[in-house]
């Protein structure tokens, strides 16, 4: 139903109303949820903002003279994306990946055309359901924290920004 002239809202009032609704929506929508991943034998949490997409593992073309943890490149919708075997990069030996393995595409703002292979997805985890643990001296540079769930399972926090800025992660070729 069309509003009459007497019921019209000024543009300024309308914009202020929209801004107030946006501000209240952003404060309500801040939920502390992380994506759970199995990387090798460990459980990890990653911020949803540090994941562009999760997909089944596509065909990967190997690259010569690269570290064993650098699996090669994959064609993702016409773009070549580098693929890092994250358990191998973390120094864990494993028997390969199963059907549960996933390719996690990283946002371009962190590292363009990059992805990591993980063993499987473990769902969404609420940090409020976990107990924070202190980091010890053995923590890797890309480990942003540790938590423990009700079953005693330790969850490590993957700091994607620190990972992609690690010199070893960026140096995929064998020197």
Automatic annotation (TrEMBL):
Instruction: Report the superkingdom from the record.
Output: Bacteria
In terms of SUPFAM superfamilies, this protein maps to: CheW-like
Gene3D superfamilies in the record:
CheA-289, Domain 4, SH3 Domains
A Pfam family matched in the record? CheW
Q: For this UniProt entry, which segments traverse the membrane?
A: none
UniProt GO BP? chemotaxis; signal transduction
The name this protein carries in UniProt is Chemotaxis protein CheW
